[in-house]
Amino acid sequence: MITASKSPSVLRRPAARTAIVATIIFVVAHVVLLLGITTPDKLYFDEVHYVPAARQMLLPVVEGPILNPMHPPLAKEIIALSIKAFGDVPLGWRYPAALFGALALVAVYLGGLALFASQERAIAAVLLAFFNQMLFVQARIAMLDIFALAFGLFAIAAFIHGFRQKRPQSAFVLTGVFAGLACACKWSGLFMLATCIAIVAVIRLMQGWRTRFADANAEDWYRPDLWPDFRLPHFIGCFVLIPAAVYLASFVPLYGFSFTDLVEAQRRIFADNTTTAIAGHTYMSSWPSWPFLVRPVWYLFEKVGDDRFAAIVFLGNPLVLWPALIALIVALRDWIVNRSRDAFLVLAFYLGPYLAWALLPRTLGFNYYYLPAATTASLVLVYALTRRGAPRWLLWAFVAVGCAGFIAMLPITVAAIGTSMATFNRLMLFQSWI
After folding, report:
1. ∠ CA(101), CA(99), CA(286), 5° rounding?
2. pTM
C-alpha cells in the first residue's frame, strides 16, 4: 500500500514551494529596488571610489596603479561586468547592487526557513529585513557592502541548514563557498565565516569535554551526539581550504597567477584595513552606537528646485531596529535559561558580525558597517515575536509598523522622490542625525 508520506509528489512539494516563494521574493524585490535607481545621474558618496576601479578593470591594458587596492576585487568585477553590459551610466553602475539586494532577501528567506521551518516566519523575516531601510539604501548604490552581505547571508542559510543535520558536510561546503565569495567582496565577510568557525569549535570543545545536560532535550543548542561523522579534515576543508580557494580565485582576472602580485595585494589590503585612522570624518561613528542609530551617513543631499532636495540617508528604520534590541535580550534569556537552539543561532549571527568590529584597531567607522547585523536582526525579531504563547497577530502587526516607518522615511531614502525642508526637519528627530 502506498502512503502519502511515500508519494514522490508529496516529497517534492516543500522544495517546489520553497523555490516558487524564493522566485517571487527575488522578482518583486528586484523590481522594487530598481525603481528610481538611476537618480542621481552622477556618482555619489563612495561610488567615486568603486566605479572608477570597475572601469579600470575593463581597460585592455591597465596603466598606472590599481585603483581601490584596499578591498578584494570580486564586487568591483561584478560592477565592471554590469558596465560592460548596460554601459557606463547610472544603471550600469548600480544594477548589480539591486540584483544582489534581491538575492540577499532570498538568502534571508532561506535562512529563516532553515531556522524556523515555517514559511510564514521566513517571509516575515524577509519583510523586516527589507523594511529596516539599511538593506534598501545599500542595494541602490554602487558600493561593495551589499555583495558581501548577500553572499554572507547565503553562507548563514547553508550553515543553519547544516547545523540541524546529522551529516552536515554538504551544507558546510556551501557555507565555505559563499563565505569565500563574501570575503572576495570585502574582508568584513570574514566575520560571517569566523562566526561559523566559532560555533563549530565551541560544539566540538564541549563534546571533547563530554559535556551533557542533565535534562537534555531535542531543542538544546548543544548535543553531545551532534555531527558524529564530521571530522577535522571536513572542518579544514569546509571552513579553511574552500573559502581560501574561492577567495584567491577572485584575484586571477586582475593579477593572473603571479604569486608575488597576489601576496602584495593581500599585504596592501591588510595594511589599509588595520591601520588606525587619525583624521576624523563628518559621518564617522563608533561601533557601540550603531544599534542605537546615533549617527547616520548622508549619502546625498542636494537642492534640485525651490524647497526641493534629493536626499539619500543611511540611517536605519527606528521602528524595526530599536525593538530589535529588546528582542536580543529575549533571545539571550532563552539561550541561557532554556538552552534554545534557535535563540543561540540568531544571537550568534547577529553578535558575530557586529562585535567583530570591536576587535579591530581602526578608529574610523560608519554605521553602514552595521548592515549585516541589522539584517540578521530580522531573524532575532521573528524569533522573539513568535515564541510560545505569543499571539499570531503580533508578528504581522509589528511588520505593519515596520512598513509604516519605512514608508515615512522614503523622502530621505529615495532621491527620485525628493523631500522638502519641512519634511527633512520633521524626520530628523535628533540633532546627531543632522
Report:
1. 30
2. 0.94
Strand partners, 301: 311
Average pLDDT over residues 113-137: 97
Query: How much is the pLDDT for 9?
Result: 45
Q: Hey, is 60 helix, strand or coil?
A: coil
- Residue pointed to by grid coordinates 538575492: 103
Those residues with Cβ within 8 angstroms of residue 355's Cβ, 6 or more apart along the chain or in another chain: 287
Cell 551610466 locates to: 89
Helical pair 119-131 and 392-408, crossing angle rounded to 10 deg:
20
The helix (H) or strand (E) run that includes residue 304 is: strand 297-305
* Per-residue CA distances from 306 to 4, 41, 408, 411, 426 (Å): 67, 20, 22, 16, 18
Answer yes or no: are the C-beta atoms of 39 and 310 closer than 8 Å: yes
Q: Average pLDDT for residues 423-431, to the nearest whole number?
A: 88
What is the rounded CA–CA span in Å between residue 143 and residue 63? Answer: 23
Give the residue from 99, 41, 97, 94 showing the smallest Cα distance to 310.
41
Under 8 Å between Cβ of 44 and 143: no
Which pLDDT tens digit goes with each residue over 133-189? 999 999 999 999 999 999 999 999 999 999 999 999 999 999 999 999 999 999 999
Helix (H, G, I), strand (E, B) or coil at 312: strand
Which amino acid appears at position 115 of this protein? L
In 3D space, the residue among 323, 326, 311 whose CA is nearest the CA of residue 428 turns out to be 311
